[in-house]
Amino acid sequence: MTDDRIQRVTMPKWGLSMKTGKIVEWFVGEGDTVAGGDDLLDIETDKIAGTLESPVEGLIRRLIAEPGEDLPVGAVLAVVAPEDVPDAEIDAVVEEAKAAIASGALEVGDEPEPQVVDVGGRTISYLTLASEEPAGDPVVLVHGYGGDKNSWLFVQQPLAETGTAIALDLPGHGASSKDVGDGSLAMFADTVKEFLNALGIERAHLVGHSLGGAVAAAVARSAPEKVASLTLLAPVGFGPDADAEYLRGFAAATSRRELKPLVGRLFADQSQVTRQLVDDLLRYKRIDGVDKALSAVLGTLLDADGHQAIDTRSLLADVDVPVTVVWGSADRILPVPDGVELEQVEAGHMLHMEAAGDVVRLIQRRR
User: Fold this and answer.
1) Which terminus of the chain, N or C, has less C-beta within 10 A?
2) pLDDT value at 347 more than 80
3) Cα–Cα distance, 89 to 72 (Å, whole number)
4) In the Enzyme Commission scheme, what number(s) does this protein have (predicted)?
5) Among 102-106, 212-216, 252-256, which stretch is predicted with the lowest mean pLDDT?
6) Residue 113: predicted pLDDT
7) What is the domain extent for residue 243?
8) How high is the pLDDT of residue 107?
9) What is the mean pLDDT of residues 10-16?
10) What is the CATH number of the domain that holds 42?
């Protein structure tokens, strides 16, 4: 019988499309002691590169995966166990792990498919992930300007391990209808409220990024009974400064050459900007109706002078639900505001991609 003190670090599943991940670089070695949340290694997927944080604590006895290897989701990457566990037992676990990879037994099966629901005459696409016996109010994830439900790929699965996590595409984004009407904040907030009603959700923990943060705050202001808590990630409307050049440039970009340097501003770590990420955004921007939708929403985000036109701080003034505001310390799109009680993480504007572990922990704190 295998010693139950032996722990395995496995290839994570970041998003539904991920089947394998390539080992880029280890930050730890055999004989090192790690704690939960420590950076272990960088992994590159078909969509984006990310850092795997340790899900366990203890002594690293073996590193199985080598830099450059492309391994399936679920493959054992490292073995953690106390020093008094015999080497023979560790070696047996390693051989078992290698055999599982070689046999093809780790191939990813069928995954949950995104669904659609009619909300106010618009088709809204969403993805639900849940644990076997989800408890408590669900977490609903609301993306930012130009984003979609896939931007939560590093966050949604971990949240779903202990409950239900739902990511939706706002109107004008992702696979949802491209009609945004006047593109107003009220339209987006009404859509989210009606979305919750359509799915029979009485109350939810709302997590909003950037524009999605203002949308979540507007929902909490107008329908506080629907909101268990708010977690706002670099929300718009907390200061007068914004990278108007980025917002206008993103709305107008029609080529990879124009788009790639703009996308680079979203991240502190430029290695996150993969060709696939830029290609996916460019493909979205070429869908009929997207240019009109982005232009309409741009008028909601910025005034004629390029200042933020949404005042999210005022929206929250009378909101009586638990609120957590989180910001990336290296955010170039919406710099960290003054005079706001907030949590900072080491990341750029896309903090839920660059510092996913920290973001998940802060969301879990409210559940």
Assistant:
1) N
2) yes
3) 24
4) 2.3.1.12
5) 102-106
6) 86
7) 115-364
8) 67
9) 82
10) 2.40.50.100
How many folded domains does the chain comprise?
A: 2
Domain boundary among 103, 124, 141: 103
CA–CA separation, 170 and 167 (whole Å): 10
* 140 and 42 within one domain: no
Q: Which two tokens stand for residue 357?
A: 């572990």
What is the token pair recorded at 246?
């980025």
